[in-house]
Amino acid sequence: MKASVHAMEAFFIGPSRMLARIQQLIAFTLVCAAIAALAFAFGTGRPWLGAAFPGLVIIGYLGVLAVEFGLLRASYATKDAVRPGIAQLVRAWAVEALAAPRVFLWLQPFRSASEPDHLPPGAHERRGVVLVHGFFCNRGLWNPLLRRLRAANVPFAAVSLEPIFGSIDSYAPTIAAAVAAVERATGLPPLVVAHSMGGLAVRAWLAANADARAHRVITIASPHAGTRLAAHGRGRNVAQMRHGSAWLADLARNDAITARTQVICFWSHCDNIVFPTRSATLPGADNRHLEGTPHVAMVFHPAVVDEVMRAAHGAA
Questions:
Q1: DSSP character at residue 292
Q2: Beta-bridge mates of residue 219
Q3: 97-123: per-residue pLDDT in tens?
Q4: CA 33 – CA 267 distance, rounded (Å)
Q5: In the chain, where are the structural domains located?
Q6: Which fold has domain 129-312?
């Protein structure tokens, strides 16, 4: 019994790998279940049943996404000028239906270490980038952008935040270590780019460290004022992200990002995770709206990628 417990611990617990292993287990479970369904279907002489399990999984996934988008639209007042229309939501639903499985079933579980940090010799005086992911994610989320940064020889470090359901405040040392590594390599405070919960983790790090330095901060779909969807989740960090939480109020009071003109907040009226969607904006910041773009897909939006590259090259 003890041996099996130790084996499970070894599988799930490792340096910045717990989330990847959980998502690997989910992916393998789905594949094994699909194979078992096919075997049963052919064994019983009814091969059409082989499509039943994958079909139910896909329908269930699309249904959950549809509920998210329905809750999103319900969060808007009827006369709100930016309330998305049904056609916009359907398009955003289709985009997210394709984007999210690639992230959660491939990039994060199997490719999180495929793009290592890039801190090359001779990086001095070149602006570096630190990338911070969101809830139930890891550094694999950023792989397409990391390849773009490496091709341009931009120094970068991408973190994986753990424990997965821990306090957002507990992620500050991980962010601080990545910032310090990039600053040692370049001699310059880095550009910090964060998606979703990562934006709150960056703000918490800045608030807790008077000597923390960031050249600029770019947040993407970050619930700065919380999200109503968090009311349906569990975990300490989820509770902190609830709309109107005491933790968010404390963060706002202690906010160290005083020069809001140095902050860019990307948000979308079709964000199926952060709603009310204006929660992803900050007063006084450069708040940029991404038309019709859902939550995960915002990471890959050309406007976001172009802004990161522009800022990293010192044009901002």
A1: T
A2: 194, 265
A3: 999 999 999 999 999 999 999 999 999
A4: 37
A5: 2-110, 129-312
A6: Rossmann fold (3.40.50)
